[in-house]
Write a structure and sequence with these properties.
mainly alpha; 3 helices; binds iron/sulfur cluster
Amino acid sequence: MLCRAGCGACCIAPSISSAIPGMPAGKPAGERCVQLGLDNLCMIFGRPERPAVCSAFQADQAFCGSDNAEAVRILTWLEGETRSQGAANSIS
Ligand code: SF4
Ligand code: SF4
């Protein structure tokens, strides 16, 4: 599927362990990435400082659901599942 531009769920719901400009220790789950613009688009898209994990994440119905709220629900649930399995984070 194509990413719903302006969704931003994968930049809010999951934790990201990689350093992000402005978030050198990564991003906690449920916290908005500081690089996510008010239009819910990545402000460093295509730039080398964008974490590799962000570039690698591909929109998929299984993660993104059918609307933005469903994406947040799925990604939040996956974050919890991953944590309960002892992994560091859900998408990296
Ligand atoms: S959760 Fe999916 S649809 Fe939403 S911004 Fe991320 S990749 Fe795009
Ligand atoms: S760096 Fe960009 S793509 Fe990665 S979480 Fe932040 S806003 Fe999203």
